């Protein structure tokens, strides 16, 4: 762990003096109106922490049984919130709107890859979720069971998640880009009893199979617990169906009533497990609660996005990631919003797709990742026909960014070219583990500074500290922590409470939550700027990838690979790019042969983890730079990957000649 931010980041922080205060009209109409209102909420949370959260929980959620206790810290860091209260997450997303004027409102506008549209109202969604929930029950899925969901972006994917929540089953959604091996690992770790998948997903005009991946995963052994596989027929293309185990949606839903009473569960009941990358080779099953998680999903919709009844909200994240959980599957529904769900990719049929969709649906709140913005900037610069200026974006009122730091240049482009200079850009910092936004501006209050996620939301005790937990002065880089628990925080790592404690609450940090990122606060405003991960986690296109996971995948190719080390290097579009240094069991290849083997290894990693984990660069060496005690010197590899001269101290390096060899491109 390093406690210092890169000098360049601090420097640009100190010179960033563009400030964009919210326009008066926006402030006046906002839910949290002006900085005084923000400060008042912070003061309320500070002064009466439990009272603040209890009031929010009572006013934002419908409880089947009211809670009497707000926070139970007796078994810290295994905090419990609203523990004796009971509620149902799906009831809080659907039933609460049925019988109100919202029931006829469009809940989801689904735009398929080919542009076809499907709309469902809250009442229709309520019925579809009820029917799917009954089908799950009829197949023996019960409260506490785990259901693995491997679905395309679709109304059906959200229905599957909501149906699990409705009957108290815990879902674990796996992103459709993960391989059979990765799916298998998650099925086994979660102990899933059922899988919900589709024959395929449509992306960029192509059919990508999903069900075959599930078949492969289930054939790997250890999945005997999986009794049912529900298959959504996305297209007419047939897929193999195993009798007794596999059912099409049509078959499973036939004859099922659309009425399914939502099961009230304890507030701490695990709503879902979502696997994410950590510093070791094994992904972590981040476990979230029902009450605390949903509370923050709803509250941040209202606060960060200043949601209004007539908004058309669009979060482009896949339901396989946390952003797609909180800001597609739960938050917008809990808040009664109309949202857009998009099946395809931003570049099909052309790179103007997002802008055309904003125009088509009169989208008002648009939430996407810096990687997407940067790649669309590139595309717009190369081809004026896909520039946002070609679309009518006047419906937009708020823009959001998530997943990685947004560089000020991309922020400015987004603000000007997409937001027409009038829409606040909310740069939202959060993580799978935080459940929802933790550091983010409020659009009707916070003056914006490009490249900064600004200030913690009320109730979130974020701080920058040194390695012993002491506060760092503003302007000095350090470790990002959250000093007090909050309702939507991770509850544990599934099957591994010890890893949970060690990863997030290390002893030397005084019980603070360790985010795993570095941060620095500006001298003038105390604004946070995230300087990147301080552990062995990379952020590639906003997706978290563990370097150890990729290394394990590479060395699993035992006929070829002797040793591998993976580092990240900065990339203008994807944020970071994956670079692998590989020692083969045969002579170091060069030229064409090196290219061939590199491709073979890339495809291997795609099979082991998924295409998103494919290394961009692969360099072969006779060895890796190591200390005399045998430790790989990753900081040297990072310099080589960047193509920069090595200026670091190499006195402990055992084999200095290797640096020269690895620096040559091969
Ligand atoms: C929501 C999500 C979490 C990691 C996090 C950090 C990076 C996310 C960011 C950001 C700078 C932002 N990150 N949002 N860095 N500014 N606005 O992305 O969750 O996939 O778990 O990734 O992403 O490094 O630690 P997750």
From TrEMBL:
GO terms for molecular function: acetate-CoA ligase activity. CDD domains: ACS. Keywords: Acetylation, ATP-binding, Ligase, Nucleotide-binding. Residues 549-631 form the AMP-binding enzyme C-terminal domain. Residues 102-486 form the AMP-dependent synthetase/ligase domain. PROSITE patterns: AMP_BINDING (PS00455). Its EC number is 6.2.1.1. It comes from the Bacteria. It is an enzyme of class 6 (ligase). Residues 38-93 form the Acetyl-coenzyme A synthetase N-terminal domain. Pfam families: ACAS_N, AMP-binding, AMP-binding_C. Belongs to the ATP-dependent AMP-binding enzyme family. This is Acetate--CoA ligase.
């Amino acid at each position: 762990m390093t406690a210092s931010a890169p000098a360049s980041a601090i420097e640009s922080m100190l010179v960033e003096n563009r400030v964009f205060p919210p326009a008066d009209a926006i402030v006046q109409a906002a839910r949290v109106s002006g900085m005084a209102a923000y400060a008042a909420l912070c003061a309320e949370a500070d002064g009466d922490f439990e009272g603040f959260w209890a009031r929010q929980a009572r006013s934002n959620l419908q409880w089947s049984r009211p809670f009497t206790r707000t926070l139970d810290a007796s078994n810290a860091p295994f905090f419990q919130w609203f523990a004796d209260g009971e509620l149902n997450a799906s009831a809080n997303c659907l039933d609460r709107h049925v019988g109100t004027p919202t029931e006829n409102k469009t809940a989801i506008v689904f735009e398929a890859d080919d542009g076809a549209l499907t709309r469902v109202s809250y009442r229709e969604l309520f019925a579809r979720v009820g029917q799917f929930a009954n089908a799950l029950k009829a197949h023996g899925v019960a409260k506490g069971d785990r259901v693995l969901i491997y679905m395309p972006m679709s109304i059906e994917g959200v229905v599957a998640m909501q149906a699990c929540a409705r009957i108290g089953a815990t879902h674990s959604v796996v992103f459709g880009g993960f391989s059979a091996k990765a799916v298998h690992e998650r099925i086994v770790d979660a102990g899933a009893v059922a899988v919900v998948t589709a024959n395929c997903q449509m992306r960029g005009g192509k059919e990508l199979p999903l069900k075959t991946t599930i078949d492969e995963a289930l054939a790997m052994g250890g999945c005997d617990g999986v009794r049912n596989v529900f298959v959504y027929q996305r297209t007419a293309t047939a897929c193999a169906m195993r009798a007794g185990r596999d059912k099409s949606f049509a078959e499973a839903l036939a004859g099922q009533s659309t009425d399914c009473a939502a099961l009230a569960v304890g507030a701490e009941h695990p709503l879902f497990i979502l696997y994410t990358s950590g510093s070791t080779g094994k992904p972590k099953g981040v476990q979230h609660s029902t009450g605390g998680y949903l509370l923050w999903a709803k509250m941040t919709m209202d606060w960060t996005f200043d949601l209004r009844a007539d908004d058309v909200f669009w979060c482009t994240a896949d339901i396989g990631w946390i952003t797609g959980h909180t800001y597609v599957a739960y938050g917008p529904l809990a808040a009664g919003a109309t949202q857009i769900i998009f099946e395809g990719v931003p570049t099909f049929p052309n790179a103007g797709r997002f802008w055309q969709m904003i125009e088509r649906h009169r989208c008002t709140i648009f939430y996407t990742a810096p990687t997407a913005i940067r790649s669309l900037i590139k595309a717009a610069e190369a081809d004026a026909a896909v520039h946002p200026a070609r679309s009518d974006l006047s419906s937009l009122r708020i823009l959001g960014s998530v997943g990685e730091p947004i560089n000020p240049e991309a922020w400015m482009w987004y603000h000007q070219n997409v937001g027409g200079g009038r829409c606040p850009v909310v740069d939202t910092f959060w993580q799978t583990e935080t459940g929802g936004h933790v550091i983010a501006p409020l659009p009707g209050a916070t003056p914006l500074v490009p490249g900064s996620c600004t200030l913690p939301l009320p109730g979130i005790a974020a701080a920058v500290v040194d390695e012993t937990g002491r506060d760092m002065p503003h302007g000095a880089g350090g470790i990002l922590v959250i000093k007090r628990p909050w309702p939507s925080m991770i509850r544990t790592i599934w099957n591994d409470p010890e890893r949970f404690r060690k990863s997030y609450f290390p002893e030397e940090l005084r019980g603070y939550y360790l985010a795993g990122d570095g941060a620095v606060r500006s001298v003038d405003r105390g604004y946070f700027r995230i300087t990147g991960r301080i552990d062995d986690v990379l952020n590639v296109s906003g997706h978290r990838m563990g370097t150890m996971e990729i290394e394990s995948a590479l060395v699993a190719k035992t006929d070829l690979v002797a040793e591998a080390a993976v580092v990240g290097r900065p990339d203008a579009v994807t944020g970071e790019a994956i670079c692998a240094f590989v020692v083969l069991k045969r002579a170091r290849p060069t030229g064409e042969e090196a290219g061939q083997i590199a491709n073979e290894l890339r495809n291997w990693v795609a099979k082991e983890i998924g295409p998103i984990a494919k290394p961009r660069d692969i360099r072969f060496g006779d060895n890796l730079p190591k200390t005399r005690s045998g430790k790989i010197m990753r900081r040297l590899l990072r310099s080589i990957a960047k193509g920069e001269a090595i200026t670091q101290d190499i006195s402990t390096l055992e084999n200095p000649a290797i640096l020269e060899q690895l620096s040559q491109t091969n």
